[in-house]
Amino acid sequence: MPELPEVETTLRGLSPHLQGQRIKQAIIRNANLRWPIPDNLSAMLRKQTIQALNRRAKYLLLECDDGTLILHLGMSGSLRVLPANTPAEKHDHFDLLLENGTLMRLRDPRRFGAVLWHTGDISQHKLFASLGPEPLLEDFDGAYLYRVTRKRSAAIKLVIMDSQVVVGVGNIYASESLFHAGIRPQLPAGKLSLPRCNRLVQTIRETLSASIAQGGSTLRDFTDSNGKPGYFQQTYRVYGRTGEPCRMCETSIKQIVQGQRSTFYCPVCQK
DNA sequence: CGCCAGGCCTGCACGC
DNA sequence: TGCGTGCAGGCCTGGC
Description:
Structural class: alpha+beta
Largest sheet: 4 strands, antiparallel
Shape: elongated
CATH architecture of the largest domain: Orthogonal Bundle
Radius of gyration: 20 Å
CATH class of the largest domain: Mainly Alpha
Number of domains: 2
CATH topology of the largest domain: Helicase, Ruva Protein, domain 3
Strand order of the largest sheet: 1-6-7-5
Number of helices: 6
Helix content: 10-25%
Oligomer: single chain
Order of helices and strands: HEHEEEEEEEHHHHEE
């Protein structure tokens, strides 16, 4: 369940190991991810230097000399840095072996992740062309959210999970942010006032930032082959707490389905 | 054994 | 036309 904070933590953990390093070899053990890993990827990556590592939405971007390696962790993916001779296990589908002996390994049991190669401007890539703003950058603010929700009758929870509105707000943080903002997930987006849009933007930023900060504390384990790099269990306010007492008012937390996924909320604290 | 979770893309039908 | 919306389907495995 990598959400944006896990992806950001992974980025920060990988960067010092990978930045400026030259790729010796890419190994594809199972190309069958969400989309097939391109056939020619190994040839493309050979001798490429990783100039910079970045993140857009939940995609990790390894910017190389001649193009960008796009990585997505899907539901169950994780990336680790390991010694070059570490034996691969069952769900280890992709390796990047660096000339300095470092190995970056993708493990993804459910194979919802992705490994893609793109040359040219990444914003032109099909997957990136219509993405909304990053939730932690300044162009995502209350005025923006107010403007883009005006004519939308869909539930606010679905709208903040719409990657054209804002990226990186997954199912867990959507429920959590709405709880902190005191907004009922079913509320038609167009009915939110400007102050409530301001508040919701604030709580989205805060829940994501707090989680990233917490993830940072696990970074020392990033290269530990036994650990789960950059992943962290948190205490949620509503997510997964169906029937348990609200931490604010003790009312039983409700679970509903929106857009074929579970939503959790407090029927008293959220209006 | 069956069912569910999850990210996120794709396709369909429908109404304005 | 082209969009927003609601729905379903696909991909996959581990855990209950």
